[in-house]
Protein 1
Amino acid sequence: QGDWQSCEVIFPSKLFGSALYAVLHAPANIDLAHDKLPVVVIAPGSISGVQSQYQWSARELAANGYITLVIDPQGVGNSELVSYPQTADNYIDAVVSGLDFIESDANPLRANVDTAHMGAAGHSLSASGLSWLQAEDLRLQAIVAWDNLAENATGAAEGGQLVGGEIPSVTPLRPVRPRVPAMGQANSDGQATNPDDRKKGYELWHQAGVSSMLISFLGKGHLDWAQGQAASADSSSDKSKEMRLFEYYTRAWFDLWLKNDRSALGRLTASQVFDQTSTEIFSPTYHSALYLPALGIDCPDIASGSCTAFQH
């Protein structure tokens, strides 16, 4: 994961006022007097998900020049439990409240934050929430949805742009309106009746003309993005290799859009990652895809071998 440093922080929930627990990460060699670094806020999956299961991404990003904040939503993990229902709002609130903290004087790294380059990643329910939030919170400039980009986010109000970190009230559905470049990472569980089954969120971005990528990983399940306590920490373990693969694509996407690092495109379209070939990475059952309209890339099925962007 490289060299990083971290500290625990607590700040108020925008929605409930309850105390939210998070861990703030930065490069080990950060220059406090001069560095201005991009930011990624990370939120967990619902039910059993907690922030500690996603530090694999927060630490690796921090070691490579990011400030990261991974958060327990209200009522989850070490965050305060109050008498409000658990809904998608809690997970959206975690990201909005985290961005508020990043921009506040309570953040010990406030002077080092590049507020023009902030993104977010989330798993499961947080991924659905981010799919919606990216259109409403204009501070976000790129997102990564771990299983997966969504067509709508359940549990809060339709339409309307957030003002000053406001969280909308609970209603059944919210349609997603693509605004920022978005990557979806998807599992390959189940038997496909439609090879584009994992692409429904991606297709919204494609139809809107907004850059997007979908990776349907071969042999991965929905819970694999959460690193459990029992997972082996050995770098040669299957779990460590899996985390590195998820993070390889996660950081490449953020590098492309938050750092304007054009070398990231080569990483996103590599025919081999670490010791795995593309046939070992992409599911042959569910389509993976890449859409970068400004670069003339529109690849509806990466695994087919027909996309010239991946033929190098």
Note: Residues 155-171 have pLDDT under 50 and may be disordered.
Protein 2
Amino acid sequence: MDLRDFIDDAKSKILGENAKGKDGRGGFVDGVSNMLGKGQEMASDAAIALVDDFNQMLPVLSLAGYNLRELEIELGVPPKIISHFIFADEKTIEPSVALERLTDNSLGYNLLKTLMYAEKNKQKISFNDMVFGHIEIELGVIPSVRLCYVPGSGERHLTSELSKQ
């Protein structure tokens, strides 16, 4: 298959029968736009489906000492949920008990395991004149974890700032 055949094949897949024998630039743009629109709609539906699981896990995470500070939802393709957590000084229940409570909520279970891992390792990383501030967890096709550090007074300062809000 040469390049021209490859391009014609791609156009026909995007435009269907409308691509045959035409320049197709306008139709091609419309076809791509329609595909992106459908992709964003599917991404939005997927993000909304995760919201129920997310809402159900929050009280359990809070009891285990992980407090949600901020939440971002990216409705792109693919969708992402980016949660920002701070670690409480006191825990009402042990994280292992919280894990048991979240066995039916795979999002919550995996998020709690990630938070536990981050908390365990946060002190192993240090920077001059900076202390641990919060953790960001990006839930997407490829999840990522960010340990965030702030200058000066650190965690306690952030926790007291949040309690004033």
Note: Helices lie at 3-15, 25-63, 95-101, 106-121, 155-164.
Protein 3
Amino acid sequence: VQKFLEDTILKDKEKGEVIFQLREIVFKIFPNVTERIIYGGIMFSLEKDFGGIFVSKKHVSFEFTNGYEMKDPNQFLEGTGQYRRHLKIKLLSEIKEKTVDFFVKQVV
């Protein structure tokens, strides 16, 4: 995970900072969470995988394994798959604007 973070920061400092802050939210809400690199991003697990952070060319995506079950009053979640939904984060300010912590708290 550390190498992934270092490589991302070297390539794009803004995306690296977004990832850092997203991870901080996850670890604050779930101190016992585990993380691993899979599918080119960081996957978070409690008893099961619940979501992950993935970097694309234009944004950082926070994917939620069972996002279809989440409350989303402002319709920030994107995706039309059977289960998975995601938040696209292009700027640091969007972490707060899109209430990432609200969604992370729902994964239990």
Note: Strands lie at 34-38, 41-45, 49-55, 60-64, 85-89.
Protein 4
Amino acid sequence: LHAKDFVDLSLAKSRRVVIVGAGKTALDCVANVVSSRAAASITMLYRQAHWPVPRKVLGMGIRKLLFNRAMAGMMAPYY
């Protein structure tokens, strides 16, 4: 069943649900099924995990913001 056709949560009632992909639509479907507690189990299948963040924040590249000495200083010492 394609995500565009998944409008009735009763279709997942007491079933094992498999979500293929990890994009926004897939995460919306997972959120709906989890919040309704309709499915017996939910499994997500995807090729590679990704972290959906913008490439730039306030005009600066995300790598420049995250991978610098200031960020390292904000982390707990055991990292």
Note: The two ends are 43 Å apart (CA to CA).
